[in-house]
Design a protein that fits this description.
This protein is α+β, with helices and mostly antiparallel strands. The chain is built from two helices and two strands, in the order H-E-E-H.
């Protein structure tokens, strides 16, 4: 599907209804723009709270403060990239 929309002087566009319907967008939903070369891709941002509990937490990370989990994960990721 390819549709066009006009950019206003304030840099705003109205998403065509067909696009809103195809992405199941409603008022208040958040979207993500990704720019690849000179093309923009629009995607609906998932509601991560709906995913809560869908992935099991590894035993060694249960009860660990979130900041500590993030720090150790970033450190491990950086070491793996070396």
């Amino acid at each position: 599907m390819q549709l066009s929309a006009k950019l206003t002087t304030k840099g705003q566009i109205t998403l065509p209804k067909a696009v809103r319907d195809a992405l199941d967008l409603s008022t208040g939903d958040r979207v993500l723009f990704r720019v690849e070369d000179r093309t923009a891709v629009l995607a609906k941002t998932p509601d991560f709270l709906e995913l809560a509990g869908s992935v099991e937490t590894p035993a060694h990370k249960r009860g660990v403060p979130w900041d500590a989990v993030r720090s150790s994960t970033r450190r491990a990721w950086a070491e793996a990239r070396r």
